UniProtKB/TrEMBL annotation:
Official protein name in the record: Ubiquitin carboxyl-terminal hydrolase 40
Keywords: Hydrolase, Protease, Thiol protease, Ubl conjugation pathway
Keyword Protease appears in the UniProt entry: yes
Region described as Disordered: 17-41, 394-420
Lineage, highest ranks first: Eukaryota, Metazoa, Chordata, Craniata, Vertebrata
Comp. bias intervals (Polar residues): 396-418
Parts of the chain that traverse the membrane: none
Top EC class, one word: hydrolase
InterPro entries in the cross-refs: Papain-like_cys_pep_sf, Peptidase_C19, Peptidase_C19_UCH, UBL_USP40, USP_CS
Basic and acidic residues: bias regions: 17-30
Domain Peptidase C19 ubiquitin carboxyl-terminal hydrolase: 42-320
GO molecular function: cysteine-type deubiquitinase activity
Matches recorded under Pfam families: UBL_USP40, UCH
The keyword Protease is annotated on this UniProt entry: yes
């Protein structure tokens, strides 16, 4: 019932004739979709109006009701344009119903909106969201129409079509006297109970009346006796043209005090003869024959659900063609390979055959073979096509545009059903449709039988007299009997819809191209550059992507009337160096979408040879690359610290490095490449060797923004280098950045220093220009990535010993730097206290001030530490860091140089440190396990040892057994292994047993141990049994038995406490569960003006 709950209304007809001053509603950016192949329009669901949609569709497909409503003109009903006038009597409800019917019949849209109609009812948005009963709506809507049509020629519309006379009879068994009372009512009140019977049985049944409940009931006319036995029945005195039957499926259970829906079987015929149930039976049979033409179906329960309707198309307004799915495959040949058919279905419809149709129709090839009257196989049955009688000469898209003609390509219609079959002679041409809100689809007549019972079953039945014949001019004519003013309104609305769809189609399929004209460009410095401004050199062109390349070329010719000679169109791309040309667009018969010409693409228009007299090389191999070239600019004493100048040069991707070196260093030299990305700091410099000079710029990885360092022969002489040690020198070049924290204005100095240079010399180079501090008063502190100063670097360390990478940032700070025999520790407390540990007989703690000047020892006795000659502070590579999870090591934190933020540990995480005996650096594909060998004859294990297992190739049970067997130097078939689950005190054996299975399933069997059920991870304990010494395969220990017993006791205590709580709250919980919070029911009403 809540379909299209958030679907906004979109209609190009004025949605508000009632109040002109009202602000128009927001419209969607796209027009509504046109009607589908059924040529019938659905109705949008406003949130909970499916019951209204089903009844409106039934009234629409009642031609006599529809035409009687259309016969009322504006002179009787008024005009919606005058609805705002205070004295005007405008019958809004029938007028809005007329407009809605006209939209459903003539407006080319998939679904119409009932917003205007519900507003005429006086409903607000809350009422449109509530669910109501369709039987109740039928009575209220007819009553509202009768009140609205008072004083018009249609005042008896409802009475003429739906009202009849029912006579209730009471028969005396003694004298056979018949006592009757006449009740004139609409047949909508003719209700039948659903109790596993047929419709005819419920009509013809007689009721016995208990005489004890009618104490004063006498047969006054004849025998003047108290009725002993009374039979009560109903007879139809007057039959209406349309018979409406409501099935009372909603009942009340007095024992449970709740409502329920009766889902038992209740059958009803397509045709029914009411002669046995009529009072007068002397007329011809045709007077009593009725045909079913509408079945309103309810799906759900008594508190909510969804309505839709099965309707017989009496006037043949719809296009009935039963099918599962239909696609049009455009192919050059008449047949296509069967193996490619499923892929083409996926490309065209976005859903695979196996996912949507295989369950109902079986395999695709089998389905094709079962329909030989439609599909034709090749002799080898590898290709399939359609037989000639099933091919369509023409196919239109959803916007009505002709996509192709038979002279261009072969249209293949894929129809999953046979040709439509007629139901029978009496209803030839009248087919059934399922109208489910916005969705309309054809159904078979036998599908009605599925609605006899169940949660989705028939709720209201609508029959029409078989004598009601339709005129021939009404067949297939939706414009029949529609007033002229509504025809004009719908024609204008369709014209507006077509215009909007054309605009939307143009916007969706139009692409904007930027045409660059060769006459406005010149070629220099390896790329194309505009002679004028960029805007003057580019011409914008909008074209449909479905057009061909020949159409694009013709459009360009029309724009450039003065063009002479051949015209070549090439894809261009703006690069940092300028505009570069790539592939040439060729194949005038191909569509722009087929050649993947994207929106906003740059197209260069030229003769294909030269631009401004210069030959232009095209393609990605000749793309220009902008390279940042660094050169030494200043020379200091000794040539150990240098400043640089930077310039940009453009080279083609096909340029060889030898040519690049000759261009940048004509007197000879070496080239260093920045191995980092262009937007990052330069940390990895590589030297191009002599054998690299034959490579191209593209092959060595030089891209836009890459930096190269040029050291020509002059630079080598300044650094006292001879050609013999030139290569060795280039490997010792280190690029450092120093930020001066000793000055008021921070400045960065770029230094070129040899890795063997001492840091105190680097300090000298940095301090010498500043003249503020001396080398003895300053120290160098590395700066981390987030700008924090790290511990000072010993002054007698070389750059290599200090582990400074290329491009590292150092901070020049006040204070004395420690030596290589000292370690400086900074405590993150206020004030800063720095402790210097001097390696010797004793370690002393000394306070250091803000300038890192070491003071006196804090205490000569209490603060003197014992001798630590055999102990040293471990390096990070001798430590393992684990997260703590349930008081056990959890995740292993690899890569000591990675930031903690990258691990995404979260807040309040605990970390434990494990010291190692030897240095360790685990890779990303190495798994750290704890293996322990079982003690033969005992339920215990030796101490565990660490086992590093490389899982880059595979992480299977067989590979783990091989690694464990090689670790203990045992045969692989003489060991058994199991993983220990400490939280459960259980061991899970890891078996590599494999059975004889097919190759297709073998890959599926070799699942990784990191998945279920083992979930192998770092730190897991693996138990090993040596079958040569111990043939028992029980991995459990005494500690495991004790742990399991404790767990059982805890589980028993928790279960006992839960049972106690359940017993205490049993009554309260039962009452709480039985409470069903439902929204209060609101009566349905329609507001009607006074027209009497």
């Amino acid at each position: 019932m809540f379909g299209n709950l958030f679907e906004e209304d979109f209609s190009f007809i004025s949605n508000n004739h009632c109040e002109k001053g009202k602000k128009s509603k927001p419209r969607d950016s796209e027009p509504p979709a046109p009607r589908d192949f059924t040529n019938l329009s659905g109705i949008k669901n406003q949130g909970g109006t499916c019951y209204l949609n089903s009844l409106l569709q039934t009234l629409l497909f009642t031609p006599e009701f529809r035409e009687a409503l259309f016969s009322l003109g504006p002179e009787e009903l008024g005009s919606l344009d005058n609805s705002s006038k205070p004295d005007a009597k405008v019958r809004i409800i029938p007028l809005q119903l007329q407009r809605l019917f006209a939209q459903l019949l003539l407006l080319d849209q998939q679904a119409a909106s009932t917003t205007d109609l519900t507003e005429s009812f006086g409903w607000n948005s809350h009422e449109e969201m509530r669910q109501h009963d369709v039987q109740e709506l039928n009575r209220i809507l007819f009553s509202a129409l009768e009140s609205s049509l008072v004083g018009t020629s249609g005042h008896d519309l409802i009475n003429r079509l739906y009202h009849g006379i029912v006579v209730n009879q009471i028969v005396c068994r003694e004298c056979k006297n018949i006592s009757e009372r006449q009740v004139k009512e609409d047949i909508l009140e003719m209700e039948t109970l659903v109790m596993s019977v047929r419709l005819l049985q419920s009509f013809g049944g007689k009721k016995r009346v208990d005489h004890s409940k009618v104490e004063t009931l006498f047969c006054i006319t004849v025998c003047l006796q108290l009725f002993k036995i009374i039979l009560q029945s109903a007879k139809l005195r007057k039959l209406p043209p349309f018979l409406t039957i409501s099935l009372l499926r909603f009942n009340f259970d007095f024992e449970k005090c709740e409502r329920y829906k009766e889902t038992s079987c209740y059958t009803f015929p397509i045709q029914i003869n009411l002669r046995p149930f009529c009072e007068q039976t002397e007329m011809d049979d045709s007077e009593y024959m009725y045909e079913l033409f509408s079945v309103i179906i309810h799906k759900g329960g008594c508190y909510g659900g969804h309505y839709h309707v099965y309707i017989r198309d009496v006037d043949e307004l719809g296009n009935w063609q039963l099918k599962v799915n239909e696609i049009y495959i455009q192919e050059e040949s008449k047949q296509i390979p069967v193996d490619q058919l499923g892929q083409k279905l996926l490309e065209k419809k976005g859903v695979s055959w196996n996912k949507k149709y295989r369950k109902e129709y079986g395999a695709l090839r089998k389905y094709l073979q079962n329909h030989p009257h439609i599909f034709q196989f090749s002799p080898d049955e590898n290709k399939v096509g359609l037989k000639e009688k099933h091919k369509l000469p023409f196919k239109s898209d959803s916007q009505g545009q002709d996509l192709q003609s038979p002279s261009q390509k072969n249209d293949v219609q894929w129809n999953s059903e046979k040709n439509p079959t007629r139901l029978r002679a009496s209803s030839a041409g009248c087919h059934w449709f399922d109208l489910n809100d916005s969705k309309v689809q054809p159904i078979k007549e036998k599908d009605i039988e599925k609605q006899f019972q169940g949660k989705e079953s028939a709720y209201m039945l609508f029959y029409r007299k078989s004598q009601l014949k339709r005129p021939p001019e009404a067949r297939g004519n939706p414009r029949y009997q529609i007033p002229e003013h509504l025809l004009n309104e719908m024609n204008a609305a369709n014209t507006e819809l077509q215009k909007k769809r054309a605009e939307c189609d143009s916007a969706n399929n139009g692409i904007d191209l930027h045409l660059h004209l060769s006459s406005c460009y010149k070629f220099h410095n390896g790329a194309l550059h505009p002679s004028l401004t960029w805007k003057e050199s580019v011409v914008d062109l909008t074209i449909d992507r479905r057009k061909t390349l020949g159409d694009l070329r013709q459009s360009v010719f029309q724009m450039l009337e003065s063009w002479e000679g051949d015209m070549i169109l090439s894809i261009a791309k703006p690069l940092p160096a300028g505009l570069h040309l790539y592939q040439i667009l060729d194949g005038d018969e191909l569509t722009l979408d087929g050649i993947e010409l994207a929106d906003g693409a740059d197209v260069f228009v030229w003769n294909g040879k030269e631009v401004g007299g210069t030959k232009v090389m095209t393609g990605p191999d000749h793309a220009p690359v902008v390279v940042n070239v660094l050169r030494l600019a200043e020379y200091n004493e000794g040539g150990k610290g240098q400043h640089f100048t930077e310039s940009q040069h453009v080279f083609s991707c096909s340029t060889k490095l030898g040519d690049l070196r000759r261009a940048l260093a004509p007197l000879g030299g070496i080239i260093l490449k920045n191995g980092s990305e262009p937007d990052k700091e330069a940390k990895n410099w590589e030297v191009f060797l002599e054998e690299d000079m034959k490579e191209t710029v593209k092959s060595v990885g030089l891209t836009d923004g890459c930096s190269v360092l040029i050291l020509d022969s002059h630079d080598q002489s300044e650094n006292n280098l001879c050609p013999g040690n030139l290569t060795a020198f280039t490997y010792d070049i280190s690029w450092l950045q120093v930020k001066n924290y000793c000055r008021t204005e921070e400045e960065e100095k770029h230094l070129l220093s040899q890795i063997s240079s001492y840091l105190n010399y680097v300090i000298y180079l940095s301090v010498f220009p500043a003249l503020l501090v001396t080398a003895n008063d300053s120290c160098l502190r590395p700066v981390s990535g987030n700008g924090k100063l790290l511990s000072p670097v010993p002054e007698d360390y070389t750059v290599k010993e200090a582990e400074l990478k290329m491009g590292s940032l150092l901070g020049l700070c006040r204070g004395k730097a420690p030596t290589s025999t000292q370690t400086a520790l900074l405590l993150l407390s206020f004030p800063y206290v720095c402790f210097c540990f001097s390696v010797g007989d004793n370690w002393h703690l000394r306070r250091i001030d803000w300038c890192y000047e070491a003071g006196e020892a804090l205490s000569q006795e209490a603060m003197t530490l014992p001798c630590f000659q055999e102990q040293i502070v471990p390096l990070p590579s001798f430590l393992r860091a684990w997260t703590v999870d349930s008081k056990r090591p959890g995740k292993l934190l690899r890569n000591n140089k990675q930031q903690l933020n990258d691990y995404k540990l979260g807040a309040r995480v605990e970390i434990c440190i494990e010291p190692l005996q030897k240095e360790e650096n685990l890779g990303p594909h190495e798994l750290l396990l704890r293996v322990q060998m079982g003690i033969p004859g005992e339920r215990d294990y030796y101490d565990s040892t660490d086992l590093v297992w490389d899982i880059s190739k595979e992480c299977t049970a067989w590979a783990l057994r091989q690694r464990v067997a090689s670790h203990y130097f045992l045969p692989i078939d003489k060991i058994e292994i199991a993983k220990y689950f400490a939280e459960k005190f259980e061991w899970l054996p890891i078996s590599s047993w494999t059975q004889q299975i097919s190759k297709r399933k073998r890959k599926k069997k070799q699942e990784s141990l990191q998945s279920a059920p083992y979930h192998l991870k770092d730190g897991d304990i693996i138990g090993v049994k040596n079958l040569l010494l111990d043939d028992t395969k029980d991995f459990s220990t005494v500690r495991d038995d004790v742990g399991k017993e404790k767990q059982r006791q805890l589980a028993f205590e928790k279960k006992k406490s839960r049972q106690t709580e359940r017993l205490q709250d049993h009554v309260f919980s039962e009452e709480k569960l039985n409470i069903k919070h439902r929204k209060p029911e609101v009566a349905l009403s329609i507001n009607v003006g006074v027209f009497r």
